[in-house]
Amino acid sequence: MTAEMIITNARVLTMDEVRPRAEAVALAGGRILAVGSAAEVGALTGPATRVIDAGGRTLLPGFVESHLHLVLGGNELTQLQLGGVLGFEALAEAFRAYAAANPDKPLLMAQGAAYEILGEAVTRHDLDRVIADRPIAMMSPDHHTVWANTAALQAAGLLHGAAMPHGHEVVMAADGTAAGELREFEAFSPILALSGELHLQLGIATGGEPNPWPDAAQRAIDKDKVAAGLAHCAAHGITSMVNMDGNLYTLRLLQEMEAEGRLTARVKVPFHMKPHMGLEELERATAMTEAASGDWVFAGFVKMFQDGVVDSRTAYMLHDYPGTNARSEPLFEPERFKDICAEADRRGLQIAVHAIGDGAVQVTIDGYEAAQVRNGKRDSRHRIEHIELIDRADVPRLGALGITASVQPPHPPGVMDFPLSTMEHVFHRHRWQDAYLWKTLADHGAPLAFASDWPVTDVSVMRGIQAALTRVPFDGAGDERVPLMTVLNAYTAGGAWAAHMEGVTGRLVPGLAADLVLIDGDIEAIPATGIGATGIVLTIAGGRITHQATGFA
Ligand SMILES: [Zn+2]
To answer: Which CATH code is given to the segment(s) 5-62+511-548?
Structure first.
């Protein structure tokens, strides 16, 4: 058998223990045909083989993004980007330019607005001074807060407040009108609805399905947004991803794209279980799992949110936040959560729970433990997403129960794009040593999976690798950097394992999918501080080139 493509003269890091290093890889039929020395692999060259000289660059398994929001990210690529914008003048200038370029949008929506964008709490009056005659709104980077102007609040019916479920809040001003800040999804979804794109938010908001089901024309618009997200990810070397919101509609869009040959990454889609749902709703998760077979679109897991986020102090803590009498609450009642975990586990479904505060992490571990006690130990690979603070006593429980720490190197304040000032605001000084532990969790046996949580942070895996390698310890805390090979594993084989996809991708081994990424240099020789700026030369998913740097090959 001859190869369709050979990449040779590469520094191949296979992420496979049996043969960790090689010089060349041969591909055929969407799979890896051979891995070995340049001579061994070169013997598979035929007349039609495309041979790519890697020029000594590092060749890795395609990156596995273990936690992102593909549909939301793709949609946001079309909105105003406020990352890096600070101060009223810069904000006003950005919004006015975007408004001029989009005269017909019913809502001018911006992303990436820093909590401290105006120095102090943003009000609707601030945004009215930006633009008063059209609805405008902006989302925080963590996607848990929206600020809106008066026109938007009025159009959304929120100007005089609204009854909200626990944990969601229309912040009110002293004069009895909405202040402009909307906390958590239920509070700001009426604003997002003004855009006509709310059905794309259902996967994260309610776990429900669009009603009516979008017609072919609407689905075409939606698929274009997903395609924009996929292209963005391919440019960063990503060939597999775990979508951390979902519903059947998301799954069906991706399956249509697969049939149309437009799917450039393998995507895992969850059923999103909300606190109000009965146990019988898990049947929908089982149905999604049965509806997705093959090597590109997967289901098989349940996503839940156990708490909110630190900035808005909705993350559930074991102790009160600094200077307050509040610690938030778990979103699932702990005993009921155990029942849900046991039932999902009994159905053979994997569970992924967003848990940020140490209280939420503890309740989640308790739920997984209860499932294991009731159902016996299975190859369940339940996982916890984020783990921003953990009680020291809970650290060894992850490894002991086989719980994956699905964490995000870009997230710790001061490491990448989030300001260090958050630390003072949300964590007591003496707890900084328990915040954003990765090395400690791994040292205690927890499998690691790394991700960006895009669009919450930049999806760039190279920047994430740099963040994981260069993180400076918080004042009084330990060194939580992890070694390069551990980092690379968490972005490839470890992520694949954590998603039950190790039989498909994550390592460069004959028979597995031809998912590869060629980075623009020798990653073992580049200084850690230079990795983030290192480009992706080539991304290949299922044997197909999904990204190629201009001027290469
Ligand atoms: Zn997320």
So the answer is: 2.30.40.10
